[in-house]
Specification:
This protein is of the alpha+beta class.
């Protein structure tokens, strides 16, 4: 017969009632039943059913004590083997009935019935209930038929119900309350697990938000790095070229004055652009429209600055794209790309003619193509003004140009030409909006 081994931890009320839920508690219970039963025997609570053939045998008093000891020994096995212990208890009860019955053995039977209804499996409990009900009804009917007395029928029904059914009903009630308590604890544990999962979810959301903020900061830093490179590198390269040329050649008042004027113009432009960036970074400061970022409509100023530096620049804009109504992000990106491309041409191919071409991109309804092409650098005599060594490049020019084009959904190409020159080509959809997260391009120059 299978037993329910998971039930004992949940039976808190039963454990407190019987003095513990371990073997020591069972021993205390058995000793208590033996002592109480011995007292009942001493006061003569025997012969309870001394009727007819029942109680025909009258044993010596010590036999009843021995039988009580056997019954108490069976209660020690009630927890782990409830049904076999109950079967032994039924055998002890039958022997006691043959001697007329005693209240001491009824205590043993009640304890074993309670234990069987508490710790046995569901199938065993169903069989136990069925058997107890059948015996109660059959015993009451038999007594009623034998005596033909309704009072005897009722009395036997009450006696058998008290002996067989009350301990089992009590055990079922305790078991139900214990299972409800276990269910409440399970629900509490589930609620605790749910709360823990919610805390973990909140922590994950916080980490995700932190990562998003970090990504936004990194994207902003990348954008600032591009703007700083575009703003500072071009003008500082111009200053380095003119000052280096002036220092590497014999003094000439007119030429040196022109170089100083160009250096001053580039320095002032750098300060203006830097002021524009600082104003943009100050969220609480009003923006000065005069210091707005460069737009494609300022291409003439950019070309004029390059020509003032000694470069030969030709602009081909048959559709007057530079003055077209382009989105601010598109105009700013194309202006910065043109600025960086002209700066690279002056640094890497000094004295070479440069051609700037603007056109509507073929295949794009509102796209714009910018192409900056320079011829191969001419041969220069050693020690000439264009032979002045330039500071080392940061190597980010191509990367920033590519990022600006691709951030708007456009394309970027930079490659040497067949004649040894260089060409930079950017195609940007004019209807695109500025975005974040541009793909990193290859550093091709």
């Amino acid at each position: 017969m299978t037993t329910d081994r998971a039930a004992p931890p949940a039976l808190g009320g039963l454990a407190r009632l019987w003095g513990g839920d371990d073997r020591r508690g069972d021993v205390r219970t058995a000793v208590g039943i033996f002592v109480l039963g011995w007292l009942f025997l001493q006061v003569g609570l025997v012969g309870l059913f001394d009727v007819g053939p029942v109680g025909a045998t009258t044993p010596e008093p010590w036999w009843r004590v021995a039988l009580l000891a056997v019954g108490c020994a069976l209660t020690l096995a009630k927890r782990h083997h409830p049904m076999p212990a109950l079967a032994g208890g039924v055998a002890v009860t039958l022997v006691d009935l043959a001697w007329g019955g005693s209240l001491a053995i009824l205590l043993v039977l009640w304890d074993l019935l309670f234990a069987a209804a508490t710790w046995s499996g569901a199938t065993a409990r169903r069989w136990l209930w069925g058997t107890a009900i059948v015996l109660s009804v059959a015993g009451a009917v038999a007594v009623g038929e034998a005596t033909r007395d309704v009072r005897a029928f009722v009395a036997m029904s009450l006696n058998l119900g008290a002996i067989l059914l009350v301990p089992m009903w009590w055990a079922a009630n305790v078991r139900q309350k214990s299972e409800l308590a276990a269910l409440e604890r399970s629900r509490a544990d589930e609620a605790a697990r749910t709360a823990e999962l919610e805390r973990e979810r909140a922590a994950d959301l916080a980490r995700i938000a932190q990562l998003d903020r970090h990504e936004a900061v990194q994207a902003e830093r990348a954008a600032m790095a591009r703007d700083l490179h575009d703003v500072i590198a071009s003008h500082l390269s111009t200053i380095a070229i003119h000052s280096g040329a002036a220092l590497s050649t014999p003094p000439d008042v007119d030429r040196d004055r022109g170089a100083l004027e160009q250096v001053r113009a580039s320095a002032v432009e750098s300060l203006t652009e830097m002021r524009s960036m600082i104003e943009l970074l100050r969220a609480d400061a009003p923006r000065d429209p005069l210091a707005a970022p460069g737009r494609l409509d300022r291409l003439d100023d950019l070309v004029g600055s390059a020509r003032a530096g000694g470069a030969t620049v030709v602009v081909d804009d048959p559709g007057d794209v530079a003055r077209a109504d382009l989105p601010a992000a598109v105009g700013h990106a194309l202006f910065r790309i043109a600025q960086e491309a002209l700066t690279n041409a002056r640094k890497h191919a000094p004295g070479a003619p440069v051609a700037v071409r603007l056109a509507r991109a073929p295949g794009h309804a509102a796209g714009v193509t910018l192409e900056v092409r320079n011829a191969p650098p001419p041969e220069r005599p050693a020690g000439g003004p264009d032979a002045v060594p330039l500071p080392l490049s940061a190597g980010t020019g191509m990367l920033t140009m590519r990022e600006r084009a691709e951030a708007l959904g456009g394309t970027f190409e930079a490659a040497p030409t067949a004649d040894g020159g260089w060409v930079v080509r950017a195609c940007v959809p004019a209807g695109a909006r500025d975005g974040a997260g541009a793909r990193d391009g290859d550093l091709t120059r």
